[in-house]
Specification:
By secondary structure, the chain is of the alpha/beta class. It has ten helices and 14 strands. The strands form three sheets. It has a six-stranded mixed β-sheet, with helices on both faces. A four-stranded antiparallel β-sheet has the order 2-1-4-5, covered by helices on one side. Helix 2 (95-105) packs across helix 3. The protein is elongated, with a radius of gyration of 24 Å. The two termini are 38 Å apart. It binds adenosine-5'-triphosphate and magnesium ion (MG).
């Protein structure tokens, strides 16, 4: 397998007074899908553009496959495929012409361009006519075309800024599947506000807040760090009655109501089954289970704690 890697060391980027990135360090040394999340303005696009050598950092270093990224090292751009958050396509060209122009800009020799374009169209599964004018493509079609255009030169490191936003679930799955395929041999880093996509796709998640990297971990351990050993219960009858019952139970502590749910913690974890049995007899229990925060709650807690 080819040796690939992204190493970001103490990276800072200032736009005048705005400190968009503050001493961010990241090291990735094997193929896979890596997710970047964070509130609006956290610095995600800035970080992705610095890695893609489209922005020059104020401080710090970036190495791709061991080579230092610098404005002088233009060859390094060949290792990268960058899908921007918002991109002006050449609207008047046909999809096929657009791919040919992009192939030329990527330095692909003229005599192999047609083959490259054909291969990439097949790889991405572009199913609209190649003669269709870019201006008239739907959002999903444009995304597929853009994705095709940034992998024509077979980059090792693929950087996707919000590649799944604005798509319907079918197209999101379609693009996710292409990203998974690309990630078998390449490093794919992508940002998203769709937390469920980040959680299901990534082997590692990076959380940026206000320019700083606040979390770097895999989805399961973030989830287990955020999950305490509390339970929830919902009931058809007045939940105050259930709450009252739990508060009086000697095995229970910290009872609270969150919306339709009663949240509680057990002093003795081994009494969970016994307690459920008793509650099922006494009340019309609708659901019961471990109180796992949803992804939005996890995101908010991570950001608030930083
Ligand atoms: N070219 C620029 N000039 C001045 N400020 C900029 C520039 N680009 C980004 N910024 C600022 O840097 C900060 C980080 O912006 P960035 O676009 O990286 O955030 P983001 O995490 O991608 O946000 P979003 O989720 O909204 O896309 C923001 O305060 C933004 O206003
Ligand atoms: Mg952005």
């Amino acid at each position: 397998m080819k040796k690939i890697g992204v190493k970001v060391e103490a990276l800072s980027k200032n736009f005048d007074d705005v400190k968009a990135l503050k001493q961010v360090s990241i090291q990735i040394d094997k193929p896979g899908l890596y997710g970047l999340i964070g509130p609006n303005g956290a610095g995600k696009t800035t970080l992705l553009k610095c890695i893609s050598s489209l922005l020059v950092p104020s401080e710090g270093d970036i190495h791709l496959n061991g080579d230092r990224v610098s404005p002088k090292n233009l060859a390094i751009r060949n290792k990268i495929g960058f899908l921007p958050e918002d991109s002006g396509l050449y609207d008047r060209l046909s999809a096929k012409e657009f791919l040919h122009v992009m192939a030329g800009m990527s330095g692909i020799p003229k005599d192999v361009r047609s083959n490259k374009v054909r291969d990439v169209v097949e790889y991405i599964g572009i199913d609209f006519p190649p003669s269709k004018i870019v201006k008239y493509l739907s959002t999903g079609q444009r995304r597929l075309l853009l994705l095709a255009s940034i992998i024509l030169h077979e980059p090792d490191i693929i950087i996707l800024d919000e590649s799944l936003s604005g798509l319907d679930p079918i197209n999101r799955e379609r693009i996710s599947e292409i990203m998974r395929r690309l990630a078998k041999e390449n490093i794919v880093i992508f940002s998203s506000h769709i937390l469920s996509d980040i959680w299901r796709l990534c082997e590692k998640i990076y959380v940026l807040n206000d320019g700083s990297l606040i979390v770097e971990d895999n989805p399961d351990s973030i989830l287990s760090r955020m999950t305490d050993d509390s339970f929830f219960v919902t009931s058809k009858i007045n939940i105050e009655e259930v709450k009252d019952y739990l508060e009086k139970n000697k095995f229970v502590q910290e009872v609270s109501i969150q919306g339709e749910r009663i949240i509680f913690r057990l002093k003795d974890f081994s009494k969970a089954n016994q307690l459920v049995g008793e509650m099922l007899e006494k009340f019309e229990i609708v659901s019961f289970g471990p109180n796992i925060p949803d992804l939005d709650q996890i995101f908010t807690r991570l950001v608030d704690a930083s």
